[in-house]
Design a protein that fits this description.
The protein is an alpha+beta fold and about 140 residues long. The chain has 2 helices and 11 strands; from the N terminus they run H-E-H-E-E-E-E-E-E-E-E-E-E. About 5% of the residues have low confidence.
Length: about 140
C-alpha cells in the first residue's frame, strides 16, 4: 500500500470512529423527565390561596425553570402551569383569579377559563405531599 493510500484509509477510519463516538455520546445523554421535584414546604403555602414557585423542566438538552402555581384543591394541593393556554404568556394570580397580561384572559382559582380569548383550562400537574415537602412531577 502506498503512503497516500494508507493516510487516506487512516483518515477515514479515524473520522468514522470520532463521529461514531460523538453520536453514541449524544444518544446516550437523552434527558429523562417524569421525576418528582420538591417545590415548597407546606408552611410556605399556609394562609395563601395561591403560591407561585418554579419547576425545573427539560428544554431540549438543557434544563429551564418554569413558573407554576400551587393552589388549594379541597383538602389537598394541586399545581397549575402558569402559562396561559391562549399564547403562553405567564399568568398572575390576583384577587382570586389568574389573569393573563397579554390578551386579558381570565381563569378562575381552579384554572378554568372565565373570560377573554382563553377556552382551555390551565394544565394541571401531578402533586403530592411527602416527607414534609410539596412535590410536583416534572
Amino acid at each position: 500500500m502506498e503512503r497516500r493510500g494508507f493516510l487516506r484509509w487512516f483518515t477515514l477510519l479515524f473520522g468514522a470512529l470520532c463521529g461514531g463516538s460523538g453520536l453514541v455520546s449524544l444518544l446516550g445523554r437523552r434527558p429523562q423527565d417524569g421525576g418528582w421535584q420538591v417545590v415548597a414546604k407546606p408552611e410556605e403555602f399556609e394562609g395563601q390561596p395561591a403560591l407561585r414557585v418554579r419547576l425545573a423542566v427539560r428544554a431540549g438538552w438543557e434544563t429551564a425553570e418554569r413558573p407554576i402555581y400551587l393552589v388549594r384543591d379541597g383538602e389537598g394541593i394541586k399545581a397549575l402551569d402558569a402559562r396561559c393556554t391562549h399564547l403562553g404568556c405567564t399568568v398572575r394570580f390576583k384577587e382570586g383569579e389568574f389573569r393573563c397580561p397579554c390578551h386579558r384572559g381570565v381563569f378562575d382559582a381552579a384554572g378554568q377559563p372565565v373570560s377573554g380569548p382563553v377556552s382551555v383550562p390551565l394544565p394541571t400537574l401531578e402533586t403530592r405531599v411527602q416527607d414534609g415537602a410539596i412535590e410536583v412531577r416534572a
